[in-house]
């Protein structure tokens, strides 16, 4: 791997170059070893900067990964909207949501780390920026889903979007056990039922939610 050559970050383009290098390093390390195993020191070492320089651009490790989660969320939004424009059957909504999430393991890993880790040790400014973008993206996805699936209201479609993201985060972690647990599953196949296959489990759960949400309208009124 060739590290970027930095000049003194006085001009905006130089500062942006460092931000992008930090994000690239954090992304690469997360793909290699998982988000939870990456430290701020590891990111700094990988990009060739001191930790004190990294925190000038991102206050904490968690803020780096919130930025990457925002980036990944935009990418997922665009992928879902693009595919839904080509669909003709309401049932395709579930397939599109499940497959686009399965195609984005880093996004799912970040979603799984969000509530327990990434939303901690961040500034109010970083948290607000992340939440505002997440709300905007969910609204856009909800509109696209409601258009593709007339059986869902706009609110139900937005709720389905949130549920898809939460389930993907939980299932991603559950479907990737630790080495010790993976060995246990090999030794005791009957216990492997506790390790759900990601895509089919997510697809089935989203299908059930999509079918069930409209039935709850009268009860929530």
TrEMBL record:
DNA-binding residues: 39-58
InterPro entries: Homeodomain-like_sf (IPR009057), HTH-type_TetR-like_transc_reg (IPR050109), HTH_TetR (IPR001647), TetR_C_34 (IPR041483)
Record's keyword terms, sorted: DNA-binding
HTH tetR-type domain segment(s): 16-76
One Pfam family hit: TetR_N
Range of residues in the leader sequence: none
Lineage: superkingdom: Bacteria
GO MF term list: DNA-binding transcription factor activity; transcription cis-regulatory region binding
Record PANTHER family: HTH-TYPE TRANSCRIPTIONAL REGULATOR RUTR, POSSIBLE TRANSCRIPTIONAL REGULATORY PROTEIN
Protein name: AcrR family transcriptional regulator
